[in-house]
Amino acid sequence: MKSITILALSILFASSTFVSCNRNNNLSIESPDKKIHLIFEIINGQLYYSVDKEGKSVIKPSKLGFLLKNLPSLDSNFIVMNHKISTYDSTWEQPWGEKREIRNYYTELFVELEQNDSLKRKLNLVFRLFNDGIGFRYEFPEQSNFNDFVIMDEETEFILPAAHTAWWIPAFRDNRYEYLYKKSPVNQMDTVHTPLTMETEDGLYLSIHEAALTNYASMTLYCTDSTKLNCVLMPWANGDKVRVKAPLKTPWRTIQIADEPGALITSYLILNLNEPNKIGDVSYIKPGKYIGIWWGMHVGEYTWPMGPKHGATTENTMKYIDFAAKYGFSGVLVEGWNEFWENWDFNFTKPYPDFDIKKITDYVASKGVKLIGHHETGGNVENYGNQIDSAYKFYKSYGVDIIKSGYVGGRLNGKEWHHGQFGVNFYHSALMKAADNQIVLVAHEPIKATGKRRTYPNMASREGARGQEFNAWSADGGNPPNHDVILPFTRLLGGPMDFTPGVFDIMIKQKPNNRVNTTLAKQLALYVTIYSPYQMACDLPQNYEANLPAFQFIRDVVTDWEDTRVLNAQIGEYYTVVRKARNSDEWFLGSITNENAREFEIDLNFLEAGKKYKAQIYADAPDADWETNPAAIEITEKEVDNNTKLVIKLAKGGGQAIRFFVVE
Question: What's residue 109's pLDDT?
Fold first, then answer.
């Protein structure tokens, strides 16, 4: 990764030193473009902040602070001891991602606080204002009289000026993040996970989330008093929220602010609030596409445990390897390869007798393909933790450096929330051990994404929402046509998702009571609209070979991008995005809709001027319909340039995928 020099670093005011302001209870800063304003103030010893954008209130004065276990609260009697305001402007390069170079440009207010009482406990606050939103965090400095303590409530509030329309999923449920999104005013929500995305009556789009979640409990939100969103931390089994040892920095609380919904997607505020790469060499992280012995289990073709229909056999795996090599896939995922799927007391270093890992890894190497490993824990992280070091070493000894992990279950070890401090710390520990072994992780049933991929680029992708598998067996009929038009504006604001697109057998012949609720063209478009550096072609190989013309798009589309631009968007309705491939002149377009048909005129001015391109168009056929004729697809080619205006027609529940490449 090349080094990017700092473009500018300046300090506001006359000096970069702290300014003493014991009597100053009102501090304000603005974003670099001067459109977003934040006021921090102390009222009767309590801490408050408020935010507006160009005169429109975003957050009304909202409280900050903590309630502690068996100690006086840390939310009152404060005075400002010192503060500093500074600006920072740099550009950094992602080793992989949806955009190569990212500008990190913000104004920062750093405030040193002390309680004006006999305890004299200290607390710091850091606010950063970007042109696309804000982030703030608490810092507990080291101090002799306040070291080990337990947080019982974080009193962070987000008081909205009105009951905005929100898209949300419930928290405190056994299926973690795997729920369909609901749309309602905020005062009709349950306790909800973040990102929480909202649309205001005066034309703003907001998303509240967190960044750099480490050694802390995940934040959820609960609405009271009609418009007050309260921070609710996921607890330990005994009710503790966070067990703290100073010094400690909390996760950033983030508010992305946009004038249009597509600008939320191209906001990199979450990433910018995470620290730069800490793991050093990332040359082993090579984004790509994979197939796998996975969908067959969900549709009943194979089983995870060994038996007559066992999927993870040596013979079957080698067939998948042959398919991957023939059609240009870089990896083959195999689930159900290891012992004790029968009782979920997994052994992570002992294959089933019908899975010859030495023969398979020798064969995969001869074909120029990688075996992608799989660790399902069943949520028993005690068992997994006891084996994880040997499990990573076992895989590495066979050249496996990508692992999909799973944590199915309502609680970790039968008692702890996945999203509590216990779970956050276990996921982080597994990530660190993976980095030590130069292993890439794709995590299912994960802790939510909060931008840590910047600091630990081996954390490549996660599930963390309802993915494709729900279409194979969910009693509610699977993911409705609007689900994947909501995900980019909610779940994916946190980071990449392993959604596993690419089902060609839309009606799922093995499961007559289930189906995929999209058209075939939309399945292709998902490779562009739902970002992941590792994309799966999830269907059975025979279904792809039965439709090679449509399969060509999956073969051609890339997974690592130079740039991303949103062309049009309305949350839950439609979404069109274009992405430029790294180290190539190629662009790829994905456009998707909900249950309603759409027609757009797209300006191709993102293409390089003076060049001619061929557009390979994979569109819904005129008679396509997700309910009645989902497989109808029309594949055409057209010569275009950056002056072309292209009409895109989307069927009900449909989509369109386009590859643009330069022609001589």
Answer: 98
Alpha-carbon span 507 to 492, nearest angstrom = 27
| Residue labelled with tokens 């993102």 | 606
Which pLDDT tens digit goes with each residue over 394-440? 999 999 999 999 999 999 999 999 999 999 999 999 999 999 999 99
Rounded CA-CA distance 129/53 in Å is 11
Helices (H) and strands (E) in the chain, counts: 12, 38
Distances (CA, A) of 376 to 183, 355, 453: 33, 17, 22
Q: Considering the entire predicted model, what is its pTM? A: 0.95
- Residue 622 class from Cβ within 10 Å (0-12 exposed, 13-18 middle, 19+ buried)? exposed
Q: Which of 619, 616, 617 is nearest to 663 (CA)?
A: 616
Say which DSSP state 416 is in: B
As a whole number of angstroms, the distance between CA 333 and CA 404 comes to: 8
Report the distance separating Cα 547 and Cα 549, nearest Å.
6
Mean pLDDT across the stretch 528-538? 98
Lookup result for tokens 């029309």: 634
Token code pair at residue 311: 């999927």
Does the annotation count 469 as an active-site position?
Answer: yes
Distance, CA of 308 to CA of 157 (rounded, Å): 56
155, 65 contact by CB (below 8 A): yes
Q: Phi first, then psi: what are they for 274, rounded to 5°?
A: -95, 155
Spatial separation of the C-alpha atoms in residues 194 and 208, rounded to whole Å: 7
Paired sense of beta strands 370-376 and 331-334, if any: parallel
pLDDT given for residue 664 in this prediction: 78
Whose tokens are 């300090």? That residue is: 11
Q: Rounded distance, CA 664 to CA 662, Å?
A: 7
Residue partners of 440: CB distance under 8 A and separation at least 6: 284, 285, 401, 402, 403, 434, 458, 460, 534
The CA distance from 65 to 46, in Å, is 8
Amino acid identity for residue 260 in this structure: E
Domain architecture of the chain: domains with CATH: 8-272 (2.70.98.10), 288-549 (3.20.20.70)
Average pLDDT in the 449-478 region? 98
Contact status, residue 372 vs residue 332, Cβ threshold 8 Å? yes
Give the whole-angstrom CA distance, residue 187 versus residue 127.
27
In this structure, are residues 593 and 650 in contact, taking their beta carbons and an 8 Å threshold? yes
- Between CA 463 and CA 589 the distance in angstroms is 23
C-alpha to C-alpha distance for 307 and 607, rounded to whole angstroms: 53
Hunting for tokens 């700092």 — which residue is that?
A: 6
Q: What is the mean pLDDT of residues 443-465?
A: 98
Question: What are the structure tokens assigned to 598, written together?
Answer: 């759409």
- Kindly report the average pLDDT of the chain as a whole number: 95
pLDDT confidence of residue 15: 31
Q: Which residue has the tokens 């995929």?
A: 516
DSSP string, 311-357: S--HHHHHHHHHHHHHHT-SEEEE-S-BS-TTTT---SS-B-TT--H
Torsion sign across C-alpha atoms 75, 78, 81, 86: positive
Of 469, 562, 573, 608, which is the active-site residue?
469
Q: How many CB atoms lie within 10 A of CB 214?
A: 18
Cα–Cα distance measured from residue 541 to residue 543, given in angstroms and rounded to the nearest whole number:
5
